[in-house]
Amino acid sequence: MNLSAFIAKRYLLKKKTFNLINIISIVSIVSIAIGTMSLVIILSVFNGFENLISDLFVKFNAEIQITSKNGKFFTPDEKIINEIRKSQSVKGISYIIEDNALIKYKDKQVIAKIKGVDANYLKKKDINDIIIDGRFVLNQGGNNFAVLGQGIAYRLNVDVYNFHIPLSIYSPSRKKSFNPTNFQGAFNNVILNAGGVFSIQQDFDSKYVFVPLSVAQELFDYDKQVTAIEIFSDSKDVESIKENVKQLIGNNFNVKNRYEQQEFIYKIMNSEKWAVVMILLLILAIASFSLVGSVTTIIIDKKKDIYIYKSIGMSKPSIKQIFIYNSFMISAIGLSLGLIVGYLICFLQIKFGIIGFQSSGNFIINSYPIKIQVMDIFFIIIPVGFIALIASYFPAKILVDRLYSQTDMIYYK
Q: Residue 241: is its pLDDT beyond 70?
């Protein structure tokens, strides 16, 4: 330990006396600790939600999705589909029909996005994990069922256990002409029961309803056409599958992986995360004014010591380093306490789910999700260290320069 660091350590907290400097130092430590703890918790909560949403999208979205660039629907080329199916990495292919329709239940109605899926879609592992009420069943005993998003089910007040009141789904027919005297004749109508309610993310929960592919074909007048083809795989190298599919399918189709299918939502989540982090860093920067006050108070209190250090031949930069080191020590203590307490709270939340959701209702999880990432530690240390450097360097430079040149006016009492 060099001389400047040794003296800075001695200035940190005097054990024998408790004065204004000690109080300001403690306030600085607590301010930095609270700011650091908040950063740890906020980052871990956002990581937890991001991980939760990603896990839920895994159950909703296929690894690869094919859509047409030239329109809403297209007719699959079975030869190409069979070529894709031959790949060992491909575990299944599902035909999808998505379109908007009106759903009526009792005296309530809502516009929803109907997603018709075939039997292969139901082979996805963990598909039932998104269900919060009822089951993910689309066809049983010759009867068709719908699985509704939580938002849709709430707005319609659907009871999935009451099979006496079915859902009615309406869509304008592409094959029938409009007749003013027979308004309903221009619409296709299917009737089926609600089999379950799922929850993924609010935007999805308030839009989507799953139905059998055959029901969607009847509702939207699609014979062999589909709006998307979804490819399932358990391979870790999804990008290579995507490139192979692109080569086979041609340039008239969009081929997207899971992230690209929900790119907008991921960008929104990331933007929200870093917006909150920037606000917390701003608060931490404001809290660092107590650190400026601590450094300034110590320098003014140690005017006599500065004279002594100069008289024994200590250089001006070395004297500045004393107070910069002191500031870094205060910051290091606050940072360490904040990290320890923050990650301890995160660990307790992961282990015991202390803070739960206050609203009553059905949720995929019962408490706020937490995910600890090692890289967050480095992200927190760097800005806190930078704030400490700024908060200590300028007071040390300005005051030490001034006092160093005026040491002939300082005297011992």
A: yes
**DSSP annotation string for 136-147:** --SEETTEEEEE
pLDDT digits (tens, 9 = 90+) for 290-309: 788 888 888 888 888 888 88
Q: Which two tokens stand for residue 253?
A: 């189709």
3-state SS class at 369: coil
The residues near 390 (Cβ < 8 Å, ≥ 6 apart) are 288
Which helix (DSSP H) or strand (DSSP E) does residue 228 occupy? Answer: strand 228-232
Q: pLDDT, tens digit, for every residue of 150-193?
A: 999 999 999 999 989 999 999 998 877 666 656 666 899 999 99
Looking up tokens 């803070």 gives 355
pLDDT tens, 330-379? Answer: 889 999 999 999 999 999 999 988 888 765 555 667 788 999 998 899 98
More reliable by pLDDT, 278 or 194: 194
* Cα of 235 vs its chain's centroid, Å: 24
Exposure string of 363-375, with b = 16+ CB inside 10 Å and e = fewer, is ebeeebbbbbeee
Radius of gyration of the chain (CA): 32
DSSP state of 177: P
Q: Give residue limits of the domains in the chain.
A: 3-57+266-409, 62-258
Give the Cα separation of 11 and 329 in Å (integer). 10
Please say if the pLDDT value at position 86 is more than 80: yes
Can you tell me the distance from the alpha carbon of 377 to that of 300, in angstroms, rounded to the nearest whole number? 35
What is the identity of the amino acid at 118? D
Q: What's the pLDDT at 412?
A: 44
Rounded CA-CA distance 30/24 in Å is 10
Closest alpha carbon to 294 in 388, 210, 409, 383: 388
CB of 371 closer than 8 Å to CB of 42: no
Q: Please compute, for residue 26, the number of CA atoms within 13 A of its CA located in the half-sphere on the CB side.
A: 9
- The number of beta carbons lying within 10 Å of the beta carbon of residue 267 is 10
**Is the model's pLDDT at 15 over the cut of 60?**
no
Give residue-wise pLDDT tens across range 17-37: 567 777 888 888 898 999 899
Tokens of 356: 């739960």
CA dist 95 and 356 (Å) reads 39
Is residue 375 classed as helix, strand or coil in its secondary structure?
helix
Whether the Cβ atoms of residue 21 and residue 241 lie closer than 8 Å to each other: no
d(CA 169, CA 209) in angstroms, rounded, equals 11
For residues 216 and 192, what is the distance between their CA atoms, to the nearest angstrom? Answer: 12
